[in-house]
Amino acid sequence: MRSLAVMLAILFASLWPANASAATRDRYAFNVTLDVDSAIASVRQRITFTNRADVPLDMIEMLVPAVPSGAFHLRGARVGGRTASASVAGAGLRLSGLDPIARGVETTVELEYDVRVPRPGSIRLGRQGETLVFGSWYAALFPLDPGGWRTHAYTEDGDAFVADSIDVEFNLLIDRDVTLVAPGLPVAAGSGRVFSTRVSGARDYAFVVGPRLSRAEGQVGATQVVAHGRAGDEGLTRAVARATTEYASWLSQRIGPLPHDRVDIVTVWSARPDQVGQEYDRIVFLNRAQAAEAIPLGSYFSYLIAHEVTHFWFHGLVGSDPVREPWLDEALATYLPERFFSETNPDIGASRLATLRRRVGADASRIGTIPIDTPLPTFADENTYFAIVYRRGAAFLDDLWKSTGDATFWRAMRDYVERSRGRIATAAEFHAAFDRAAAANLSPVRARYLRGAAITSIAGDDGRFFDETGGFTVSNAEGIPFWDEFRALGGVDALGYPVSRRFTLDGFTVQAFQKAILQWRPEVRRAYFVNVLDRLSQAGQDDWLLVHRMTPRPSDSSPDTGLAWERVVARRQAMLDIDPTLRSAYFAVPNSIDRYGLPVSAADVGNAIVVRCQRAVLQRWKTDVPWARAGQVTIANAGDLAKEAGLLPSAAVVSERRA
Ligand SMILES: [Zn+2]
Fold this sequence. Notes:
Number of domains: 4
Strand order of the largest sheet: 5-4-8-2-1-14-17
Largest sheet: 7 strands, mixed
CATH topology of the largest domain: Immunoglobulin-like
CATH class of the largest domain: Mainly Beta
Shape: globular
Mean pLDDT: 89
Strand content: 25-35%
Bound molecules: zinc ion
Radius of gyration: 26 Å
């Protein structure tokens, strides 16, 4: 045992080269010693990552879903080789007391901890008998945005994990004879030995350790499909392998194959009946309680298998943010199986889709038509979450399929997969793929289901003339893709119509829209939002804003002096506490700081609560006004304010409309 541990330590130390080249993906190395009898895993974990944010980091923010179940016991943490202080709140693990990590600098995070697998635990981390399910078991960095860590709360409802694609090195020492199912490793039984593997481009890393398991195989192109179940469940396991292979073959033909040597589908056990299945990268779990020995096409279990298998593509291969945009993978995992059923057996397909539509109708009369692109934390309960994100999301995709036609639908899907694989994709990318593929105007369908309502749809790819606000073109001319950026940022609903031509501001090409001014940054090939409100302040317009536009003056910013960026952000964002509705509206958009900037001041102005940010003004109305109902949040038209205040050059606001 001891010599094996030493061997493992040497192996662990030698596998990563000392001078690793600047890899784009974070690297996670795990050194796990598992005591099967006590169900305790001793873990040494090392993460090597580069600060991709625009700001220095003086804290490391991680998500550890094993904390709330009491399974995670930290023994020590080091960052850059130095001891860090660790604090745990919710499922968050924060390491502080570091030398700030400069932008672009690579560093290492080393953790030592025990995972005490709870009994029975959950389908994500739990045990029944000798079978141990390691789903959400380790500490993962939150993704990095330009402004710093994109943290979020963890909930048991939904899939509150947002994960960048990583490279994994996994070393496992097991003290006795077991069967191990783990990505990158041959399915094998072994005693007192080390299993080692590396997996590139993984969304996460999950595995199962059990006694003898039943096993059945299939093949989809170059990918081996292996189903696993309890010993004695041989018939069921064969049926799962067959159903998985059929569905994965069908989906591969439509949206492209999985780039994996093998995928595993494991029937495990969960005490919670609502935990019907759980997706991880290259491995998914099904709850044995949902299983049926025969799996007729269109049965619930056949759907559940297809749903989880869809997540091999939309979760593993194409990531998304299941906290802010949970529909993006779940609606696809709910709807694509319906296309499979419809093509394989039109009668079964039609009957299932009719049932789905009836349920969506019943949901709507019970809870109203909540937009499908509502963030996870906003849902009151799990039933509403499933009704909107899964079922109503599937109805949206079905309407999209009907609007585009079958061939265009799959062309757009394949395009989306190709462009977004290996990343955390956004709904804007999904919509853009459909705009590229479809000749039809998709705005009416989107307006029925999406919060952002109509994202502008166009026939061509290079721009559009808007007549609505005097007549200005948004285009991709001269290598500056404002048109692509405008659509990716949410189009008319997010930014309003254009209110100027392009012009030059501080040496950058910019264009004003009703709600914002976009600035093209060639060095990062992205559009940034101009700090319109700060500029109005510099131009001496604070009194005008206060008297005529109900916008409070900026508050004193001197308390920010000398504070680390995270503390400045925390102090400013605390201004949102003036109103919980405004606070949720601010955080409801992806990358709130990019979009709105930091809060500058907040005030109750009589008929509204107002938060002034650097780039936008958020208002929550207390009484009905002509443009909003009481309780509604509106975003003031910052671009219009700049235009009214004379901040835009006069030549830039001359209409392009032909005389
Ligand atoms: Zn799902």
